[in-house]
UniProtKB/TrEMBL annotation, chain A:
Keywords: Signal, Transport. Belongs to the bacterial solute-binding protein 1 family. SUPFAM superfamilies: Periplasmic binding protein-like II (SSF53850). It comes from Sporolactobacillus shoreae. This is Extracellular solute-binding protein.
TrEMBL record, chain B:
It is a multi-pass membrane protein. Its main location: membrane. Residues 72-283 form the ABC transmembrane type-1 domain. This is Sugar ABC transporter permease. Belongs to the binding-protein-dependent transport system permease family. Keywords: Cell membrane, Membrane, Transmembrane, Transmembrane helix, Transport. GO terms for cellular component: plasma membrane. GO terms for biological process: transmembrane transport. The chain crosses the membrane at residues 12-34, 76-99, 106-128, 153-177, 216-242, 262-284. The keyword Cell membrane applies. InterPro entries: ABC_transporter_permease, MetI-like, MetI-like_sf. It holds the Pfam family BPD_transp_1. It comes from Sporolactobacillus shoreae. Gene3D superfamilies: MetI-like.
Amino acid sequence: MKRLWLGTMLATMFIFTSVLSGCAGAGSQSGNGAKGTEISAIVQDRWAPYVKKAVSIWNSEHPKQKVNLNMLVVGYPQLYQKLTTSAAGGNTPDFSLIDSVWVTEFAKNGYLQPLDSIDPSWVKNDYDKDFYPALIKGDSYQGHPYAIHTQTDMVLLWYRKDWFKNEGLQPPKTWQDLTSDAKYFAQKNIEKKYGNTQGIAFQAGVKAGETTTSQILPFLWSNGADVLKNGQVVLNSKNTIQSMQMLNNLVKDGSAPADVTTYDWNTSLQLFAKGKTAISVGGSYEKASIQQESGWSDAQFKQKVGFVPVPAGPNGKPSTQSGGMDYVIYKSSQNQKLDLSILKLITGPKLMKDFLVETQQNSPRISVTKSFDPKKQWFLKETGNYLYNAETRPSSPVYSKVSTQLQNMIEDSVSGNTSAGTAVSNAASAISQVTGLKEKSSK
Amino acid sequence: MQTILKKQKISIVPIVLLLPALTLLAVFSIYPVFNAFFLSFYNKQMLAPGKTFIGLGNYIHLFQDAAFMNSLKVTVLYVGGSVLLQFLMGLIIASLLCVKDLKGRAIFRTLIILPYTLSELVVSLIWLRMLDPQSGVINYIISLFGAQPVNWLFHWALPVVILVNVWWGTTFSLLMFESAMQGIPQSLYEAAEVDGASVFQRFIYITLPALKYISLLVLIMITLYTINSFGIIFVLTAGGPVGATNVIGMYMWNNAFQSSDLGLGATISTIIFIVNIVITLIYIRGFGMSTMERRD
């Protein structure tokens, strides 16, 4: 009996020890080599080769200060979860990739190191001078820069240049142009001619998540409306209601189908690429996908597709929204100077340009935009000009909650579930509640 | 201690063998339940360090939130529809598969079990393609009969997600019922047949009473699973359009992980836990307390 006892206890302990040691082994990597400093990073798959490249350049240039990279590569859907759980668990990496809309949240909660505290002269002489001002503003919190853009993109209105030309129409510059063009292409005889099924496509529901927020916000800005301003919630305004009513009217007059509220994040681009819509609200990052989906070469794309910023409403000017992915350095990092040195290489003009040309993304650096070949990289060069007047999404430590309320507002207004006025008023109150900011109504 | 164990004739070996499982259960099941309950009284944001005690603040907020009340209503319809159909379909198909001398039984069974071998995510993605308004096979089929294409996930969102859930989940109740039916002694049916009982009477007076315990188990399991899971809805509609399929699980996920509000997420999960317990008790009560008696 005693032997059985002992055997059982030993077996139990063995199993437990094996399981625990297995867990520990799965989480850690033997990245800390005999020489060099280990730097940990969390990045997305497309960015990973360039991080490796930068480390390799660093190591060849600094043989006495080598870096051993311990990199975790995750997909975009897992990135926020991974970063927040790492932060909440006190296990942040040295640096990571982060969506530009998350910067304020992480900075406010004290996880990020301001860049000007690590290398003020680089911030003054390179960062402040070469990155687009709108992006610097979005990457700053309480006057300090916390993030470096690695690429950027912007909201655009794609339109079928060839169809517009055939019909003698000009690209839309105002909301009036937009609604009349969309309605024109939704006519039965025109649909029969081009094979499209709707005049305009846009994401307008919670199903498309952040895409809905980012692509519809320019419709507020283009009419002089905003979400947060000077520490107040200014959403509840006549201009916002007008924006929502305009989108609702696109559905009411048959230019867009009622089910735009059920679109996935990429439905509009698919409809556009398949020739099912004449106009689509999208982003510059969709060019490669549209080409892939439609099979158009670059020359065909240039001939068939046009793009403009979101047209001006009655109370505003044409507008676009820029976003993108950033690199940030965590406060807990023991090697902040070294981290920044690596990031300077990754986001330096050379590697950045290679990355942007490969991925067809816009440059956050003015000098890189200027260096694009006007023939080969015509799209990146032309769209780069929009970035001077771009705006960024509301900067808030609870951005995700703000975005959810905006998505609800858009879905409710466009579907006609509630009137635009009620949807806007509800969203403004909810945003005031979650942000703790005072609400300012200007109806 | 040893004396007590000897006196009561309790062997220590089963306790030791159960210890690892009990430890894992305590760490991964019991502790999270208590932790969620505890967290529901706090304002805890994912990234913000620390948490603030707010008493019943999260509960009050929830019951004043129109979206939460809507999610409760949608959950009742989704769970009610799914459970009723899964239970009935499982029972009917199991009865058909148990028909004596049925030809091709193995083929039918395999075909019916097939959906259950796929993960919820795969099933959802398959249906998403099939229901696509532009290129889905369902619209193609109805177009052959002259019908106009329908955006199923817009106009019929809730019925469609219920049907997809039933298509996938019926196999579970079917398997349970079929295995229970195979355990009913054939002699009972033969005796009833000799006494002149019709097929329907045999089903009512022999099959159904014999399925009482398994029915309770099936009902509890499919109800709890349907309340707790939202994978199909997540992929097909993400709770839309305009909250039409925003079940409580989806609502919780959005609050806890999209909005990073762990306190509110914990409150919703506590409510789901209480609802699960209440439903289980109602089922047990509905089937009679004798169900809880030990069957020797």
